[in-house]
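Weekly structure sync, notes
Attendees: PL (lead), two postdocs, one rotation student
Agenda item 3: pending single-chain targets
PL asked that the sequence for the first pending target be pasted directly into the notes so everyone works from the same version. It is reproduced below exactly as submitted, 188 residues in total.
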Amino acid sequence: MDLKKLQAPLERQLALLGFELLCIELAREGRDEVLRLYLDHSDAEATGRKVTLDDCTTAHEGLLAWLDVEFPDLRTHVGLEVSSPGLERPLAKPDHFRRFAGHLCRLQTLRPVNGQKRFKGWIGPVTDTTLTLEEDGVLKEVPLADVQKARLAPFDESKTPKPKHLQGHLTETSDAGGVETSAADEEA
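Predicted structure, written out during the meeting:
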């Protein structure tokens, strides 16, 4: 299945429903394949709104009939799952990395970048073509075209030495900075 062929039409349809498609992945669960869509509200950066279970249900229901018309064979081969980004939010576009500058992320590349394919570093400056990470006090530039998978790593932030070179890009770790919290956290 060609996920790149699906991405643009899914992005357009989800935008009509008020959502941004953050990431799309094909996963195997037992003998079944699942097309997993991670989404956020289109206005999440401005409003801080978080994706709820009701939002996932709304998006899922809003996609089913459309998928049956646009991609009639798709649902016979794979299941559809719609998910919130969660705390370990996927990062796929330059704007995602810019939004979370100063946060820690785990990243894997398609091919080695200076002999390395897996990174865990603090997000620094981002251009349309490259991302700067600070890993163990060393600045590393990663071509965005080579990023295979990237996610925030909030659970590792307190255990990872703070960056030395990216002080201007660091966010306050006590501030959620657009990272989701559970309803139980908010009530406490």
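Discussion points:
- Helices lie at 3-16, 44-47, 53-70, 74-77, 94-99, 183-187.
- The chain has six helices and eight strands.
Action: rotation student to compare against the earlier draft before next sync.
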